[in-house]
Write a structure and sequence with these properties.
The chain is of the alpha/beta class. 26% of the residues lie in helices and 18% in strands. It is built from 13 helices and 22 strands. It has helices at residues 146-160, 189-199, 220-223, 245-263, 293-306, 323-326, 333-352, 363-367, 373-380, 413-422, 452-457, 476-491, 498-502; strands spanning 5-7, 15-17, 24-27, 54-56, 65-68, 71-76, 85-86, 91-92, 119-124, 130-131, 135-140, 169-173, 209-212, 233-236, 269-272, 277-282, 310-313, 389-393, 403-407, 427-432, 445-449, 464-465. The strands form 5 sheets. A 7-stranded parallel β-sheet has the order 18-19-17-16-20-21-22, sandwiched between helices. A 5-stranded antiparallel β-sheet has the order 1-2-3-4-7, with no helix packed on it. The longest helix has 20 residues, at 333-352.
Length: 517
């Protein structure tokens, strides 16, 4: 992104052109620009263009390519004169990059010099992982018990946690899976693996507590299959020992207290930044996402990788149309093949649902200037920075390597966050141009605005502003470095994100592509 061009100084009309070959740019000014606005290079707007929307930098004939990021984002559906507004109705969706002819590991980035000496204050676990929080997690084997879990969480927060000051909180890991499903369907591997791995997130300290019903298809023993952790404990509400609701609650609280006693012994200690596992996600994206926030996140990602940390980016449908830019960055051909496998799996998944990638972007994305999923994808992958991709995970899998990892997930904010949580992230960075109060109770979520107008309006919901990049007040590198240091502060518990300050936390949304019976 080093070749981004910002036309005019901050007090004047602004547009951003990303690549020399682009024939469009986006309008920067908060309220857009009116017809007749003139730039120093002679460009004159023929109509009002909203903030973030595209202006034609040259005459574009019907059927000709519309180019942004140096890539074709679509074809003009009619003649578009220079200075005109190009909204999504004028852009025909181009074909996806074919998966059978992609270059694999042909431009593997050289490793950047390692960064040493960066640390955070984290919680070490017996298995070698490090958490950013010290939480009691209560997972479930079926949604039937969700109300009971919420009931006991309230009691634990009110009556038990004050006795255990070193425990940061309790999280009920409720979900909609567990029964009324084709439990042995091949695709059921994904939700079962996801629920299992969420309980093993480093922020729960290895203390696995499960509340089940008893008659569900996903029996707790299957949920914990392969988990030999001695701290595991199961409470089944249908067990005959429970006479009345209060008996169930008393037993759950007694089991919870056993885990709280262990968790309360834990203390933060200085850990190398290499122990971090950070997820990168975007939601409520706009046309600024790919030129301000996401490139800044990418710069921070590279800094983390240089520290030896693990960084995950995701969202298959917002990667698919830029996959030709990622497979050359695979560390080796096997990693490149895995990228293709995950793209192909999702292509088939959408086809089975009789839909396609045109279902993305959302109405809000379009109001923010994104014409289609191609433009969105080209901006989304900027979160990955410039490092080599060392591993590819199927939904809910845990990594086996450190470095930059593609963790395949749907693009839905809630589903992506849940799946990244299962893959072991202990902190997430979330970029947004339209704004969202999204948060996760199990991990801190740092929200970064793509536009200063949003950061100013949502001053007590946005943690860091990348909008200054658009106006030339800051560089991608400066904002990326500020984000890197904020990550270390939040991971250490020295800074609290706004979503945590206000208690704004979304429910888990486990990805279930298997049949519901």
């Amino acid at each position: 992104m080093s070749n981004i061009i910002i036309k005019q100084r901050a007090s004047a009309p602004l547009y951003i052109k990303v690549h020399d070959s682009d024939n469009v740019a986006i309008i920067v000014n908060d309220d857009g620009l009116k017809a007749g606005t003139q730039f120093a290079d002679g460009l004159t707007l023929t109509e009002h263009i909203p903030q973030g929307h595209k202006v034609a930098l040259e005459n574009i004939g019907s059927g000709e390519n519309i180019v942004r990021y140096g890539e074709i984002i679509g074809h003009a559906l009619r003649d578009i004169p220079r200075g005109s507004w190009i909204d999504e109705s004028l852009v025909a969706l181009p074909s996806m990059p074919p998966l059978d002819a992609l270059p694999l590991a042909t431009r593997v980035p050289e490793m950047l010099p390692p960064l040493e000496g960066y640390t955070f204050e984290g919680y070490r676990n017996d298995n070698g992982s490090v958490g950013t929080r010290n939480l009691l997690g209560i997972t479930t084997s079926v949604h039937c018990v969700a109300g009971v879990v919420e009931y006991v969480v309230n009691i634990i927060e009110r009556d038990l946690l004050p006795r255990y000051p070193n425990v940061d909180g309790v999280v009920g890991l409720n979900h909609l899976y567990g029964c009324g499903v084709a439990i042995n369907a091949p695709a059921a591997t994904i939700p079962i693996r996801t629920i299992h791995n969420i309980a093993l997130n480093p922020n729960f300290g290895g203390e696995v507590m499960v509340i089940g019903l008893g008659c569900e298809k996903l029996q707790p023993e299957r949920l914990l299959a392969g988990d030999d952790e001695p701290q595991s404990s199961i409470v089944r509400l249908q067990d005959e020992q429970y006479v009345g609701f209060q008996a169930m609650i008393d037993d759950i609280l007694a089991v919870a207290e056993q885990h709280l006693i262990k968790l309360n012994k834990r203390r933060r200690e200085t850990c190398a930044a290499s122990e971090l596992v950070v997820g990168m996600q975007c939601g409520g994206s706009d046309a600024f996402s790919g030129v301000t926030a996401n490139p800044a996140v990418g710069f921070a990602s590279d800094l983390l990788v240089r520290c030896g940390a693990t960084v995950m980016f995701s969202e298959v449908t917002e990667v698919r149309d830029a996959i030709h830019l990622l497979t050359p960055r695979a560390a080796d051909k096997e990693v490149g093949k895995r990228l293709i496998e995950e793209m192909a799996w999702y292509d088939n998944y959408l086809q089975l649902g009789q839909t396609d990638r045109s279902a993305n972007p959302s109405p809000g994305n379009k109001r923010g200037g994104l014409a289609n999923v191609v433009e969105k994808a080209l901006g989304s992958v900027a979160k990955s920075g410039k490092s080599a991709i060392v591993e590819v995970l199927s939904p809910g899998q845990r990594p086996t390597k450190r470095g930059l990892i593609f963790a395949a997930t749907p693009a839905s904010d809630f589903v992506c966050g849940t799946q990244q949580l299962a893959s072991g992230i202990t902190l997430q960075v979330f970029t947004t141009g339209r704004g969202t109060p999204y948060g996760l109770k199990a991990i801190p979520v740092i929200k970064m605005a793509t536009r200063t107008a949003l950061a100013r309006r949502w001053h007590d919901l946005i943690d860091i502003n990348a909008g200054t990049i658009a106006t030339g007040e800051a560089t991608i590198e400066e904002v990326g470095r500020a984000l890197f240091h904020l990550i270390l502060e939040v991971a250490s518990g020295r800074r609290q994100t706004f979503s945590d300050q206000w208690g704004l936390h979304n429910a888990l949304a486990v990805f279930n592509p298997a049949p519901v019976t």
